[in-house]
Amino acid sequence: MRPPLEGVRVVELAGLAPAPFASLLLADYGASVLRVDRPHPLAHSHTLPGPTADLLTRRKTSIAVDLKSPGGLALLESILGHVDVLLDPFRPGVLESLSLSPEHLLEKNPRLIVARLTGFRSVGPYASMAGHDINYLAVSGILSQLGRSEGPPYAPANILADFAGGGLMCAFGILLALFERTASGKGQVVENNMVDGVSYLGSMMRYARKTKLWDQPRGNNLLDGGCPWYDVYECKDGAYMAVGALEPQFFRRLVEGLGLPAEDLMVQREDRASWPTMRALFRSRFLERTQKSWANVFDGTDACCTPVLEQQQLEEAEYGQSLPVHLRNSPGLGVERDKAWASPGLAPGAGGIRTLNRWFGWTIGRDLKVFDGGLIKVDAARL
Is 66 in the active site? Predict the structure, then answer.
């Protein structure tokens, strides 16, 4: 069956984390993604250099191009005149400094979608500053709501801003622009920044501050570690169980499984003052048995109590990784078992010439040549 994005051509200017994740989503659903890397002496040779630090490279190919050289710039402009999407991971103004402004590119290719992914908003007090996931979380207000009450705000790795608020939102924007193009026939600029992306993800958290759900200081609310029946508990063997028994009927199943007096605790759960005592009770009870033992107790029940599995456990069990969305009539390409747990990466110049040949019929010698570690376009090249 034909994947939904088959035939969509994407050029990704090389970056790390959020932009590669956006193009990974597109590639997994059928788009052809060509990454543009910096030149390297071994690029496009029989002995390629080692892969770059980018791990999100499944189904992608690469060309090495010196965007500061006239020949390299001419090559990229020629490519962008005949593709669907350009993914720009740079700070505001970088494309313009290369004479590749969106306005210029859309004049050459009116169907092009230029997706610009920045950390901070492109205008405003932080626009010109460097930053990472933790910084975007910080100025969005979301970081202030994460973490235990007895410690500072805590950033959960770089999942929220980089990947959810950045890469995922950017891919969503690209799909919106592709859908709109079916009606208008025209491309456009898609602007996505991780501050707005993660702030949007936190809409419920923001609204909940005005309700009983989240009106207490950080770490004292229902969903942020304050509530004893929405927390993580250590077991006898040092492993953990996750508890999310929010609804009364699920809470009852939890305390029954723990062997605790259900009726008394059903009453106490309504009194916030009892939460510290209840947490201590749960903590001591979970420490009495191993994770496996507790998992057996709660398996198949509605107690909302599950083991905290480690990645190594899942890998050793050959747990199959799947795409996030399955379309019955036009499914994505799936995750091959040998690529589910480790990424081989992608070397500059790996497979890119084959992609250009498939897209445009270009070949080395007639249309392309390698100069100083990067591809350039031969003057007489087609297109």
Answer: no
